Amino acid sequence: MELTRRGFLAASGAALAGSLAFELSRQSVAFAFEADQEWKLVNTEEYTGVCCYCSGGCGSIISVRDNELINLEGDIDNPISAGGLCSKGATMFQLRNVVTEDTREVIHNPNRTTKPLVRRPGAAEWSDISWDELVKEVARHVKDTRDATFEEKDKNGLTVNRTLAIASLGGSQQNNEEDYLILKSMRSLGVIAIDNQARV
Ligand code: SF4
Question: In terms of domains, do 121 and 173 share one?
Answer without folding.
Answer: yes
